[in-house]
Amino acid sequence: MYVYILASPNRNALYVGVTKDLERRMYEHKNKLHDGHTSKYNIVDLVYYEEGGDSSSAIEREKQIKHWSRSKKEALISGMNPDWRDLSEDWWRITRGRSFRQRPSQPRYFEGAKRVEKSHQGGRKPRGKPLEMRT
């Protein structure tokens, strides 16, 4: 079991959770597969996690951390991850609706990650053929 902490990209919001499959759960958070607090506030950066024993002790630890002050949570995160980088950033990528594990050297993409040309830039319609028709 894992107890984990997510942060929003600007670090304004934190979320404490528990799961038995951290990789699957991060996939769900990153792709906003469940409506809720993390989807609404874009809390998707894994900044801390710890692996524990059984589910009851993990849930107890989650509740303990949830009741801590913000500064105590920040100290816990900074102890493991001083730069608050997203620890899951290189776990997978998604292309055309299919996901797979990736090596850290590959670029990462989330949620459909198709490269799409913006249809209106600066209030004007783009000129020329759409990208998929250009040769």
Count of helical stretches:
4
Instruction: Please give the largest β-sheet.
Output: 3 strands, antiparallel
Uncertain runs:
102-135
Number of strands: 5
What's the overall average pLDDT, rounded? 77
The secondary-structure class comes to alpha+beta
Shape: globular
How far apart are the first and last residues' alpha carbons, in Å?
51 Å
Q: Helix proportion of residues, in percent?
A: 25-40%
Instruction: Tell me the strand percentage band.
Output: 15-25%
**Helix and strand pattern:** EEHHEHHEE
Instruction: Supply Rg.
Output: 19 Å
The spatial strand order of the largest sheet comes to: 2-1-3
What does this structure look like?
The protein has 135 residues and is α+β, with helices and mostly antiparallel strands. 27% of the residues lie in helices and 20% in strands. It contains 4 helices and 5 strands. The strands form 2 sheets. The chain has a 3-stranded antiparallel β-sheet, sandwiched between helices. A two-stranded antiparallel ribbon has the order 4-5. Strand 1 and strand 2 form a beta hairpin. The chain is globular, with a radius of gyration of 19 Å. The termini are far apart.
